[in-house]
Amino acid sequence: MLTGDAARESAKPLKISQSVVDSILSYAKMSHPKEGILLLRGKASMDGMLVDGVVIPPSATHGHGFSSFPLGMLPSALSLVGVAHSHPNGVLQPSTEDLNHFYGRIMIITAYPYESENDLAAFNGRGHRIRYTIF
Length: 135
Prior knowledge:
Elements lengths: L3 H8 L2 E3 L1 H14 L5 E9 L2 E8 L5 E3 L2 E3 L11 E8 L8 H5 L5 E6 L8 E4 L5 E2 L2 E2 L1
Parallel strand pairs: 1-3, 1-10, 6-7
Antiparallel strand pairs: 2-3, 2-6, 4-5, 7-8, 8-9
């Protein structure tokens, strides 16, 4: 059971555009068997969060079991709210490494076979799953 800040954070509505879902799934398929990583663009407010775009991070590294990008290379004009990355091993949960390198307010993970929104999950910085709706 979530309490305090984690419960309030998880209770706020998260909306993700269908084009973002499709982009995450497609990028993961193209990157497989390596991990793929994308930045999430959107707007966060007191009422919740809207994710409406993705950006390929500059100088991103994709490997077997990891993906990363240098924070210093990010353009400052983007409205970044988090990161999406793939898990080629099929595990739809954040690893300790994922949580230790959490960036932004949300993390979306897609797991192999990257076929539909059933292969996606959103998480907060504590690794708690966040419910979302697709628009």
